[in-house]
Amino acid sequence: MIIIYEEQRMGAIAETVEHSNASLGKCLEIIERMDGFNCNQVTVECADNIIMIGGGDDDYIVTVETNTAIHNLLNPLTDEQDEALEADSIELTVGGQVCEFPQQYIVDIELVKSALLQYLVGEPSNIRWETIEK
Q: Of 2, 31, 86, 110, which sits with the fewest C-beta atoms within 10 Å of its C-beta?
């Protein structure tokens, strides 16, 4: 079962809308609505995985928490430039707060979709993850 928590902001006030028994299609629809301002945080629960997506407007950050580790989705374009991009950061709004993230964590909507396919339906993927063991 997939449960989606969509944060909708009205200035400083946030309302969380829960979508129970959601589908992959519903997840994608909600994430595509993320604009980095009024909607800048979505959490998806499926089995023992919690997928947190922040940002919007084609700049996203994705973190997956499992029973054994935390996984941060990495931008594949940073393979050759990791050291330089770790120093550079981009501001994203997540949960109503502006935060700076290293560019290596900033991904586009296509990578977000690949991550969801991997964790929600088990589709194999060659996307890169940074893994932090618990």
A: 110
